[in-house]
Write a structure and sequence with these properties.
By secondary structure, the chain is an alpha+beta fold. Helix content is 25%, strand content 27%. The chain contains ten helices and 14 strands. The strands form three sheets. The protein has a seven-stranded mixed β-sheet with strand order 1-14-5-11-12-13-10. Bound molecules: zinc ion. Zinc ion binds next to α3.
Length: 298
């Protein structure tokens, strides 16, 4: 950019340069109307509603994001910062640098594989106190429908957050157990008949088959081991979720902001932890935790 664009104030406008004056006037208006945020990305906070409400949780700003549907969002890459040690190091997984990922109790293997939980036996993985706090509390085994029917595990207090984060339209808890280990045992049994993964492309395209829930619940309950039968929820309730999406993408292009450095597009929806843009670009906030961004909204 030349000096006129960088420092419009220092640029001497000659008489008759009306087009430059006009441009300067517009630059000022746009700057006045633009909303700017910056910070380290963390997964979006959500609130139940019709539709679900999304909030971007930056260090100094808590931004209600639904209001920016149909607005142009510009994202600039500004580096990375580990959510745990705050070092400006590359992110390895889950918003952690490599060191923290292998040391933090919040990134133990039992997070992704609940059946590996051992706090109920008094055995530590990385930090027994932390693990007791998280593992020794009521958990649910659920069935959810995003791209297809899947099984999952979550703490009771993470419902419906967990389902919103995975972009499920419908979900039902079928088993209520006192700790994470038992939930893991239930999940492992149900993985023989159901997937535990979401097809995120189909989820974003809103591509799913309707489910006969009573049949699905019946089949799942049949596959639970005997020891878990006493934890079956007698009257399972199907929860329906509505996402703030104006337009689903037909093809899905995933944005790699670190590689591209800058992206700008019109926001058309939010689903799961994804921002969906008009040009079919999608950006997964959760898988980019630890990314420092500058956000401009016009
Ligand atoms: Zn770290």
């Amino acid at each position: 950019m030349n000096t006129f664009f960088e420092k419009p104030g220092s640029y001497r406008i000659e008489k008759g340069d009306w087009h430059k004056k006009w441009y300067l006037y517009n630059v000022k208006i746009v700057k006045l109307l633009a909303i700017m945020f910056q910070g380290v990305l963390r997964k979006m906070i959500t609130e139940e509603g019709s539709p679900i409400k999304y909030f971007l949780n930056l260090e100094n700003d808590f931004i209600a994001f639904n209001q920016y549907l149909n607005r142009t969002i510009s994202l600039s890459f500004d580096g990375t910062e580990c959510l745990s040690c705050k070092a400006e190091k590359p992110i390895f997984r889950q918003g952690f640098c490599k060191n923290c990922f292998f040391e933090q109790p919040a990134a133990g293997d039992w997070i992704m594989r609940p059946e590996l939980s051992t706090a109920h036996l008094g055995i530590a993985d990385r930090d027994l106190e932390f693990e007791k706090k998280v593992q020794l509390q009521p958990h649910l085994v659920y069935l959810s429908l995003s791209s297809h029917l899947k099984v999952g595990v979550t703490r009771n207090n993470q419902i419906p957050t967990r389902w919103i984060d995975q972009g499920a339209h419908e979900a039902v808890s079928i088993l209520s157990v006192p700790n994470r280990y038992l939930a893991g045992v239930g999940e492992v049994a149900l993985k023989t008949i159901l997937s535990d993964k979401t097809n995120w492309r189909k989820m974003l395209q809103n591509d799913f088959e309707p489910i006969d829930w009573s049949e699905a619940i019946h089949q799942a309950v049949d596959h639970l081991p005997k020891d878990l039968k006493s934890y079956i929820i007698a009257d399972p309730k199907i929860i329906k979720l509505e996402f703030p999406v104006l337009q689903y993408p037909e093809k899905v292009k995933s944005l790699n902001l670190e590689k591209e450095n800058f992206y700008s597009g019109v926001l058309k929806g939010i689903k799961g932890q994804y921002l969906i843009f008009e040009d079919q670009t999608v950006y997964n906030i959760r898988s980019n935790e630890g990314t420092k961004v500058k956000i401009e909204i016009t």
